[in-house]
Amino acid sequence: MPVPAATWSMPLKGVRLLYMHETDAAILIGLETESKPVVCPACNSAAVVGYGKMIWRIRDLPIRKKAVFLEIKRRRLRCRECLVTFNELVSQISAHHRATTRLVQSVWKMALRQPFTVLSKTFGMDEKTIRNIFKDTFDAQVSQFRIPSCRPAPSALAIRLPTILRQQRVMWINLDQGTLVDMAAQATPESIHASLQRVASGGAEKITVPPDAPLIRALQASTQSPLILHPRSMRAACSDVIELGRTINGAAPYLNTLSRFVGANSAAEAARLWQDLSSPPPELQTKMDPLNAALGLLPAGCFEAFGQPDHACDALAEQLDRILSSGFSRRSYDVICAIALHDKTLQKTARTGVAENGAHLGYQKTNCGTSIPKLLARLEKLTRDNDASDAGMQT
Ligand SMILES: [Zn+2]
User: Fold this and answer.
1) C-alpha 313 – ligand 1 centre gap (Å)
2) Which residues pair with 77 in a beta bridge?
3) What is the pTM of this model?
4) Residue 182 domain-assigned?
């Protein structure tokens, strides 16, 4: 059955159409390269001769939910200088998959919105292939994920440690922009160092941190930037202790001081009250030890933010924590990371003036990271869509 040409557009350059044919299972499109002169990829010699032709089967975007295969007839060539044989190259075909570049890009974009099982049906490809295409594109995105040098280093960064897929992860927030700028699967000294290089070329004016000793140690090994205690994280940790302490006899005076510390509204008051908290009742010792360990690493000025109103990012970051820790149990960490960091439509960009020798030349678009409000809206929509779709689906 012939295929109406209007439904398919040619994704490749330098090939001509031979036929279009539709079977019950697939649409087959025959193409042939235009046999332009080529040079040897090994030695650059132009002394290249034909060495036969072969058909290469490449998957393209489906049409009306039917699989589309391009059957590309291309030359096999041989170099007369160095005797290497090679295949003619065709542009716009993935280097890693038997698929057109546009198919690979389409799979990537949709994987940020839908589970792999849905994509498998949409593209008529098995889930393993979808997964492989996603993984390769993700890896390429991660390796390209470099902050351009022209981007101004953020003056204030914050780190949060949300639990995603039952593990504590690291989330980097640019407080100046209200954006998510990096994530790491685990808080290791290596991952902290790598993130710092990516988001702040090694440093920021200050970094707000939760009371977590291993994280603080890793940061102090990698940067001279001053570390400020994040008041809300600290208050949340203390509230847990207060809750536990209510059942303990004789803990009331200590808990009273702890409550006053939690409510402290100046840096000096917080610092003073914290000193009074150095000897907890024995029953609360194991709860207070991690907090003492963390604060023991921080300088005296770490309570700086206690006297100030909460940062506008705090509430947004808490919403993000909540939605990521409660939903998305059926998505892989890589998929969550891809949505949170690599979806271009969610990124906040700024136009930066480019000047040379004092002369103004124009503007350059600078990526400032993922907008947290936009990301929240997307995640809420995904959660609604997931609830509405087949509950048994996995990605
Ligand atoms: Zn050669």
Assistant:
1) 59
2) 50, 86
3) 0.81
4) no
H-assigned helices in 151-309: 189-200, 213-222, 231-245, 252-262, 267-275, 285-297
Query: What's the gap in Å between 54 CA and the centre of ligand 1?
Result: 20
Q: Are 37 and 13 in contact (CB under 8 A)?
A: no
| Residue 22 belongs to domain spanning | 1-92
Write out the chain's pLDDT in tens, 395 residues: 555 556 889 999 889 999 999 999 899 999 999 988 899 999 999 999 999 999 999 999 999 888 999 999 999 999 999 999 999 989 899 988 999 999 999 999 999 999 999 999 889 889 999 999 999 999 888 877 655 544 566 789 999 999 999 899 999 999 988 999 999 999 999 999 989 888 887 678 899 999 999 999 999 999 999 999 999 999 999 999 999 888 888 889 999 999 999 999 899 999 999 999 989 999 999 999 999 999 999 998 899 999 888 888 899 999 999 998 887 777 889 999 999 999 989 998 877 666 666 666 666 677 889 999 999 999 999 888 776 664 444 44
The count of residues in the chain is 395
Distance 357 CA to ligand 1 centre (A): 46
Indicate whether 81 belongs to any domain: yes
Query: Has residue 128 been placed in a domain?
Result: no
Asked, for residue 307, whether it belongs to a domain, the answer is no
Number of structural domains found in the chain: 1
CA of 91 to the centre of ligand 1 (A): 21
